[in-house]
Amino acid sequence: MSALRPDLAIIAANVAAGTRVLDIGCGDGVLMAALRDARQVDARGMELDPLGVAECVAKGLSVMQGDADTDLADYPDAAFDYAILSQTLQTTKRPDLVLDELLRVGRKAFVSFPNFGFWKVRGSLLWHGRMPMTRSLPVPWYATANIHNLTIADFRELVRLKGIRLEGEWFLSGDHQIGAAVANWRAEHAVFMLSR
Amino acid sequence: MLLVAQAAQMTAAELNLVNDTLVLPAPLPLDGGQSLPRVEVAFETIGTLNPEKSNAILLFHALTMDQHVVSTHPRTGKPGWWSKSVGPGKVIDTDRFFVICANVLGGCMGSTGPASLHEDGKPWAMRFPVITIRDMVRAQVALLDVFGIDQVHAVIGGSMGGMQALSFAANWPERTRAVLVIASTARHSAQNIAFHEVGRQAIMADPKWKGGDYHGAGKGPENGLAVARMAAHITYLSEAGLTEKFGRRLQNRDAKTFGFDADFQVESYLRHQGLSFTDRFDANSYLYITRAMDYFDLAEEHGGKLAEAFAGSAARFCLISFDTDWLYPTAESRVIAHALNAAGAPVSFVELSAPFGHDSFLLDVPAQDRVIAGFLNQ
Fold it and tell me: Which residue, B253, B268, B289, sits at the end of a domain?
C-alpha cells in the first residue's frame, strides 16, 4: 500500500479486514483495490466522473456513477462498516448533510480534507490578500472544485454540534504525519474517523 | 485502417464462426400458459467452447437485430450488428470467449415465430401465442442445455437484449457469473408502450396486413411496417444527432417543392430506413416482439419489488446508459442499479456521454469499450 496517497494510506491502515466499505468519490479506485487486495474488504465505490468509473470497472471493482450530495440517499441504513469520503467533503454542496448521510450508510466514517487553516494558506490571505494556491490547493479560485473550504477547527466544531464521536484523527504535513499539537496551523491535510 | 481491412476479410474459419438451427428437444412452456411444440432456434457462435464449457458468453440481440453478430447479414449483405466489438482480440475477445447469439423466439431469421409453419402446414400468423421476454430467454436457456453449458461467463445485451439479460439474471441466477446491461430498462414505460402502439397500429392499418394472413400472398403490409420503423427509428436517435446529421437541409433540390415529396433530407433518410427494413423483417414478428417488450416489467414478476428479482443472484452486474438516450434514459438504469445495491449484488453503473442517442451502444464509444472489456476480463 506504499503507493497510496498519504491520507489514503492512513485510512487503509485503519480499516478492519473483511469489512464492507463504501468509498465515495473513489476516483480510479486505487484505495478500494488496495483494501480488497490487502485486507479482503468488500469495497464498493461512488464516483462522479465516468472515466473514473470505467477505470474502476477495469480493475474489477463495483462502482456506481453518482454524486455524494444526492445519491447516498439510495443506500440503506448501516449498509457498510465504513463510509469513506477522501478529499471530497469540501467539494459538496452541503457538507453537513453529506456528513449525516455518511454516518447513516456507514457505521463509521473516514473523512479527509485539505486544511484551510494551514499557515501557508493563512499567509497567502494575510500577506498577499490573495486566495491561496498551495500544493494541496493547486487550482485557482475560479476553477477549483472546492466550494466549501474548511479548517480543522471548523470541522471539529461541526462534529461537536452534530454530536458525532471522534474515533481517531491524523494530521499530515506534506507526506509526513505530525502530532495533534496546533494542527490547525501546521497540518496541510487532516483525516478523521467518526461514529455516531 | 489495416486492422479494419483484416477484420473485414476475416473468414468464417478464422472467426470460428458457426451458423446453425436446432429444434429444442422438448416443448417450450410459455408465460401465457401455452406450450410451443418443435421450437426452432437459429443461432450463431463465434470462438471455441473450452473443454470445461466455462468460457461461453450469451449475447442477446435487440428488437430488430438477429443472430448475425459478426457474419454478413444474408438479406442486407451488411456486416454483423456487433462485428465492431466481437471477434479475436476485440472488446469481446473470441480468442478467449465462446460467444453465442440466438435469434429470439418470435423472430423472423430462423427461430420459431409467427411466420413459421403451424402443424397444419400454414403459417402461425396471429395464431402464434403472445410471448414474453422471459419466454425468449427460456428458449435460449434451452439452447444452453443442448450445448451442455451449465453456467456462462456472462450474459450481455443492449436495449431489448438488456431486458433479456436482466430476465436471465432474475430467473436463472445460478447460470451466469456476470450480467452486462446496456441502454436498457427493467420495465417498459407508458411512453415506450405508446411508441410501440403507433408502430403496431401502422402495420394493422395497412390493408395488406389482412389480419396477419399475408404470408405467401405476395406483398405483405410493407407500408405499415415501414411507417412503424420510421416512428421507432426516431426514438433511437437524439435530437442533437438528427440536427447535426440533417438539420433542415433539403434532399437533392435547391428549394422546397410546395408538395409532399421528401423535400428534407431527414424525410428521405427515414423513408429509406423504413423501406429497407421491410426487406429484412416480418410485420407479424414486429407485432409479437414489441408486445413482449411492452409486457416486460421485471419487478411485477417478483411481487412488485425489483430488488427481490435479484435476491438469488451471486453474479456481478454492470449497467451502462447514455446521456442522450431518451428511449431508455439513465434514470431507468439507475432504478436497476439501486435495486441491485439493495439486494447486495456487486454492481457497477456508468452513464457515458455519446451524441448518438439510444443507438450509441452499437456505435463507436471508446469509453464503452473500456468498461465492457474491463468488466468481462475479470
Answer: B289
Distance of CA A52 to the CA centre of its chain: 17
Q: From the list B338, B346, B351, which residue is nearest A65 (CB)?
A: B351
A81 neighbourhood in chain B, CB within 8 Å: none
Indicate if B67 and B216 belong to the same structural domain: no
ipTM: 0.83
Distance from CA of A146 to the nearest CA of B (A): 24
Q: What grid cell was written down for B180?
A: 452486462
pLDDT per residue as tens digits for the range B147-204? 999 999 999 999 999 999 999 999 999 999 999 999 999 999 999 999 999 999 999 9
Model pTM?
0.91
Task: Please state whether B123 falls in left (phi above 0), alpha (psi between -120 and 50) or beta.
Answer: beta
Instruction: Mention every residue, 6+ apart, whose C-beta is less than 8 A from residue B85.
Output: B91, B92, B369, B372
A136 contacts A149 by C-beta, under 8 angstroms: no
Residues B198 and B265 in one domain: yes
Nearest 10 degrees: CA dihedral of B70, B73, B76, B80? -10
Q: pLDDT tens for residues B52-106?
A: 999 999 999 999 999 999 999 999 999 999 999 999 999 999 999 999 999 999 9
Domain shared by B71 and B108, yes or no? yes
Nearest to A62 among B334, B348, B371 (CB): B348
Nearest to B43 by CA among B142, B116, B128: B142
Q: How confident is the model at residue B217 (pLDDT cuts 50, 70, 90)?
A: low
Q: Which residues of B are catalytic?
A: 159, 325, 358
Instruction: Return the ∠ at Cα A101 (arms to A100 and A107), rounded to 5°.
Output: 90
Q: Tell me the residue range of the domain where B342 lies.
A: 2-189+297-376
Asked if B270 and B66 touch (Cβ cutoff 8 Å), the reply is no
Measure the N-to-C terminal CA separation of chain B; round to a whole number of Å: 30
CA A171 distance to own-chain centroid: 13
Residue A3 confidence class, pLDDT cut points 50, 70, 90? confident
Q: How far is it, in rounded angstroms, from Cα B284 to Cα B127?
A: 11
Is B106 in the same domain as B255?
no
Q: Do A58 and B318 touch (CB under 8 A)?
A: no
Q: What 3-state DSSP class applies to B15?
A: helix
Asked if residue B267 and residue B364 are part of one domain, the reply reads no
Distance (Å) from the C-alpha of residue B368 to the closest C-alpha of chain A? 8
B348 and A74: CB-CB below 8 Å? no
Q: Which of B45, B43, B297 lies closest to B167, judged by CA?
A: B297
Angle B190-B294-B66 (CA atoms, 0-180°, nearest 5)?
A: 130
Superfamily of domain A6-195: Vaccinia Virus protein VP39 (3.40.50.150)
